[in-house]
Amino acid sequence: MTDTGKAPIDFWFDFSSPYGYLMSEKIDALATQYGRQVKWHPILLGIVFQATGSRPPADGVSSKGLYMFHDFHRSARHMGIPYNPPSRFPLPTQNAARAYYWLHGQDCALARQFARATYRAFFVDDLDISSPEVVLQIAAQLGVDRSSLETALQSPEIKSRLKDECEAALKAGVFGSPHIIIDGEAFFGADRLPQIEHWLKTGGF
Amino acid sequence: MTDTGKAPIDFWFDFSSPYGYLMSEKIDALATQYGRQVKWHPILLGIVFQATGSRPPADGVSSKGLYMFHDFHRSARHMGIPYNPPSRFPLPTQNAARAYYWLHGQDCALARQFARATYRAFFVDDLDISSPEVVLQIAAQLGVDRSSLETALQSPEIKSRLKDECEAALKAGVFGSPHIIIDGEAFFGADRLPQIEHWLKTGGF
Fold first, then answer.
1. Which residue does chain B place closest to A170, by CA atoms?
2. How far is Cα A158 from Cα A98, in angstroms, rounded to an integer?
3. What order of strands is seen across the sheet that includes strand B38-42?
4. Which of A17, B42, B135, B204 has the fewest other C-beta atoms within 10 Å?
């Protein structure tokens, strides 16, 4: 389908969010089906939780935490997406997010490729994506110059870009990951995909 | 489809839970389709939240709370279920739950009818189902003897039955509403209906 000329769909996520990963594997194809673009915004859920007074949903100890670990895996199977529970979880993701924004300034498509590769590195290959070394390696495999990216990860511009995105997320009402906003309508969670599809198809409810 | 002889599906819910209401409108028909029975268990989420250290998800003030109020309504529309946001929410539901268990001791089918009527009284007709008077009225409309039920609502047996059910819920790992358990597999939230259907169809994932 051709582009509808409508504003892009905003996709807010943290690279450490399992449901964010599930959404990342579906949202672009779904949007394309309805002639829409998607703007990806990696953010840091820690900052969002702190600002909104929320807590991470999955602690791996409480009955809810244990359920969620089980549900991540089951939801992935149900959606036909590869998933291996990461051995370190959750992880800080500022390096991955900063790399994304720096790459995005050079080449949007490459940044998208990097984001997908980073999610799979974490949720399929169990790599420690909090490590700058791993982030550089993922990018290098996509042809990115290692030392330029290494420098960028510490640059004030990129650090402040990520901070700005987190603030923009809060301003947009984002309280978790994944958070999708289409034409001002918010959808939280990978399990809202059927409602997102309905919205794209009909423009409302 | 005829009964499969398998154990009934457990449906844990609070009468004040919007997603519990949405589940209540779907689960019986879905179970019947796969030859299964459903056992309804009204519980008090306040007790569950206290025991698990959780908080009610929808406060109506935070960005998450506001989103959820919107999502209750949108999810109802998406599922084709009538929904009018109650003007008093959430409400204590011990009277409704006690009435359910007393009725269940007399007539299971009547108890189920009462549960449905109570959910609709709250989420469609905006009645204050925390009030014993309203609970008695709902039951009376189904032919229940008012004064017997009025007495039962204060009986130690019924009070302790509800307490036992809340404890059983916690023991079963319930941390919210609706919580469905099928053959030991837990599903939390009305949005897990597609996964529940898949489970009923295939017996796993």
1. B63
2. 6
3. B38-42, B9-13, B179-182, B185-188
4. B204
Which is it for strands B185-188 and B179-182: parallel, antiparallel or unpaired?
Answer: antiparallel
From the number of C-beta atoms within 10 Å of its C-beta (0-12, 13-18, 19+), residue A177 rates as: buried
What is the arithmetic mean of pLDDT over A80-99?
97
Q: What ipTM was predicted for this assembly?
A: 0.93
Per DSSP, B7 falls in state: P
Chain A positions in Cβ-Cβ contact with residue B78 (cut-off 8 Å)? 194-195, 198, 205
Kindly state whether B197 is in contact with chain A, defined as any CB-CB distance less than 8 angstroms: no
Give contacts of B77 with chain A, Cβ < 8 Å.
205
Q: Is the pLDDT of residue A119 over 90?
A: yes
Secondary structure of residue B129 in the 3-state scheme = coil
The whole-angstrom separation of Cα B109 and Cα A155 is 67
Give the per-residue pLDDT at B104.
Answer: 98
- Please judge whether B198 and A71 are an interchain contact, meaning their C-beta atoms are less than 8 angstroms apart: no
pLDDT tens digits, one per residue of B86-126: 999 999 999 999 999 999 999 999 999 999 999 999 999 99
**What is the C-alpha separation between A108 and A110, in angstroms, rounded?**
5
Contact B33, B195 (CB under 8 A): no
